[in-house]
Amino acid sequence: MPAKKKTKKPEGAYHHGNLAETLKNLALKRLELSKDSGFTIREIAREAGVSHAAAYRHFPSRIDLLAEISKEGFIKITEAFTESEKTASPNDPFDRLQKLGLAYIRFCIQHPGYYRAMWHTDLGCIDDMTELQEAGKQSFLKLWETILSCESQGNAGFSPREMAAAAWSIVHGYSVLISEGQMENPLLQINKKNAIEEAEKILKILNVGLIKRTGK
């Protein structure tokens, strides 16, 4: 009997292993390359070389796929926060706060796909994704615990809530501006290549502002 011809799958198609992981990686690649996350499960399934029915068994909707990527992003950024703490001065929580900020900015620059999923507007109003919410909560707790350490030293100039809001606004806002290329103008001249170096200066300004001034 003549040998059966092997059917060649599309480039990048799913071969064997974890289909859910393959679908996540393909969606993540799209998020990295474009701010447009309007892909469908059918499109991702086609790219993986599987039926849309097989893909739907893992992710019933695009929102479910985005949520899984978002959760994974929060877990990874929390791990990055933990690593950054090892490089900070052990008795200086303000230095630890600066290292957390740099870790956040670095993560957003290096992993734009995760970053876009983590803060996707379609996920902001969903209340029943407990795993995603818990992952986000754990990442924010790293900031909150560091802020409380700053306050416990007795030289913080503001309440923990005020310091957390200021730190969060500056770090997240800076990351958004860098990600969207909004600081690459003739006056600021900040881009992804020098973003970390410039962020170090900006976070030093933040720390100076948070520390209580004496003699006032």
From TrEMBL:
Molecular function via GO: DNA-binding transcription factor activity; transcription cis-regulatory region binding
Residues making up the signal peptide according to the UniProt record: none
DNA-binding region: 40-59
Domain HTH tetR-type intervals: 17-77
InterPro entries named in the record: Homeodomain-like_sf (IPR009057), HTH-type_TetR-like_transc_reg (IPR050109), HTH_TetR (IPR001647), MT1864/Rv1816-like_C (IPR025996), Tet_transcr_reg_TetR-rel_C_sf (IPR036271)
Keyword ATP-binding appears in the UniProt entry: no
Record keywords: DNA-binding, Transcription, Transcription regulation
KW Transcription (keyword) present: yes
Record-given protein name: TetR family transcriptional regulator
Native species: Leptospira langatensis
